[in-house]
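Fold Annotation — chain and its backbone

Encoding — discrete vocabulary of local shapes
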Amino acid sequence: MILYGRNLSPYARRIAIWCALQGREVERRMIAPMGETWDEVRAHNPVGRVPILILDDGTEMIETFAVCDWLDETAPEGRRLVPATGDARRACLQRLALANSLSEKAVAMVYEKNRRPEEFQWPAWQERLTTQIRGGLAGLEALAPEAGFMGGEAPDGSDIAAVIALQFVEATNPWLIEPACPRLAGLAERALALPAFAETRPEV
């Protein structure tokens, strides 16, 4: 399989880690949908967004939730990262949704603050994003365990999304992590002991 998207993308990185934890081989195309590479991305996704996962039979899959759902549906025995049914599935998906929402707002902050020329920035929008991002971090901090993972002894899909969200904020706008999130930081450190996380960590 071929995965389009850099490790800085919290969505492409989620798929890369998901595949690694399931023991799947993936060829990486570390590109962003900008400049000269945008046409290459649009050749596989008409909206021009990553991640894109091209399966071995040539099928092109887009959007992180859809791709991860397929990866779980076709996972080897015992390798699902979201429980198949019941309360455990609902709880995992809710944690994952919170982490995903945090990532979305953190990405929005990058476009607004890091990339938009200063004279065109919207302070009220940045203030709102700051409140949302810090709210998401606080929510995940409350859910993060003191030991192990939210998924138990091994990380599940919500652990992946939570760690990625935190590390994306650290890499792009670390000033947003206020107040500190020691439990979430501890979860991330435990995750980084696993190659799937350590080998995909974006540069700060």
